[in-house]
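pasting for the record
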Amino acid sequence: MFNKILIANRGEIACRVIKTARKMGIGTVAIYSDADRNALHVSMADEAVHIGPPPANQSYIVIDKVMDAIRQSGAQAVHPGYGFLSENAKFAEALEAEGVAFVGPPKGAIESMGDKITSKKIAQEAGVSTVPGYMGLIEDADEAVRISNEIGYPVMIKASAGGGGKGMRIAWNDEEAREGFQSSKNEAANSFGDDRIFIEKFVTQPRHIEIQVLCDSHGNGIYLGERECSIQRRNQKVVEEAPSPFLDPETRRAMGEQAVALAKAVDYASAGTVEFIVDGDKNFYFLEMNTRLQVEHPVTELITGVDLVEQMIRVAAGEELSITQDDVTLTGWAIENRLYAEDPYRNFLPSIGRLTRYRPPQEVAAGPLLANGKWHGDAPEDDAAVRNDTGVYEGGEISMYYDPMIAKLCTWAPTREQAIEAMRVALDSFEVEGIGHNLPFLSAVMDHPKFVSGDMTTAFIAEEYPDGFDGVILPEGDLRRIAASCAAMHRVAEIRRTRVSGRMDNHERKVGKRWNVALQGQEFDVSVEADKQGATVEFADGEALRVASDWTPGDQLAELDVEGAPLVMKADKISGGFRIRNRGADLKVHVRRPRQAELAKLMPEKLPPDTSKMLLCPMPGLIVKVDVEVGQEVQEGQALCTVEAMKMENILRAEKKGVVAKINAGPGDSLAVDDVIMEFE
């Protein structure tokens, strides 16, 4: 076994690999750029080597710099994580030449599976079900139309070297096929330097389901069940679960056996993932093979008990798999939510900055002990686990240079319903401040009827949130639970205020029992009867809710019990009440005495400032270019300026016709969210 492993990556996956290496007694080496000097993975590793400036193309993906770090540290093996160099055959080749083990598959497998046309041909030869299509070179748009008619519309036009949704078009007729072919070809040439295009049948009502495979260099190969990855935004997975709520045992077995057959066809040795598209009739078709560890691997680990990183390291060290297919048992259900530094209220624009507060829910291990890939005993019916894979910490920075992932929050429970409920509570318990993030959106997905039923496709987000995400409207039952809790909490705070020392004599303050709670446009008149164990809150219609909690004023996380059911809320103090965040909703809750509530209705409503004649910066970023000048008349849709954020350029355009009155920022200026870039007459 190796004595020292270098992790050629950063962030949460680097931390994840370090944890397993430490468990195995293996020393670890981190690499870091200038931007990651104080990163979590650097402090966790036994050693750390600096490799260059912040941009990845000057540090993390420069093979020569990584090789220098390997020589400097004396590492015997390299784990590439995912992204960066993880599927780079030249990197695997460089390691082989240096005599350093690559904790991943052979370079031949990386090359074969890295090309979509080649991989599909190999899959067909291995007996893997593939989408009907044309794999040869397509000369021009006319040939593309002819092939599309032979396959049958709708068809998917794809770049062979594509990824991330680039070089991809759906065509429903001849005209769209002609246009899509040329657009995909141009985009592929610009993005990948490879303009080869192929066409295949577009699967309607598609679900994205992938099979985890594990192979060694001795000819052994197994599959560890599937992961459902259908909830995606712009081809980026957001929620994953294992197993899939859609598959039956027969389909799972067929997909698993074909996935292993494909892996063996390319002499695969390591952990890998074979991705399939599955239609509404459970017909499945090979999509691609990822020759690396997947982001969503934790859900597979939670239902099988197999540490995939450990297995990858053991295979790289030449060991045989210690488990067979018969040893693999899928126990319970696991769900993963990806927490991103993206603001869902601003169309998921990236958000960078300092994490002023970062308090994940407490991690809880599953009840059954795991060893050698097997469950020991049966899982208790009410057992649940919480796991948080992260690479950040409170006070750390979310950088503009890398992927905006903050953490991967996972829950496990004996059933899917219990795993979802555990995830809801975990999301409510997750405290993140200082940046925009998608926690409210993830909470909304966990409560969405389509997700709860398991009846979703890859179009889930596009269909259910066509206009983006603008928050959650809670049902009245949830509002009453929150109203009762806030009334009880407010009473606790009021009692505390009456006990402040230094009061004037004969001015004792009494706390009443009757209150008015206003939230989400509704009002509830309640009375609060308190005792040492909690409070009973009675509504005007006679309904009474028992609230138990040890919350004290100043706590930003309120963990309560309402009528025997847990309620977790993020609670910040505001004038006359609380700002409550729960289940994706962001509420201002005002708790007033009845007379105060009457007077509050007479107060004029405070309107937000009029920004209709201003161009506001939608994200933290750098002004690259200003395309207009003072006094210039602009038309609707005209480019006004370009803002760079997360290494992506965003062109801001005029929403309506107008005349530029003032320009407040120029090229090179760094702006915060909602800074005024320019004003109009």
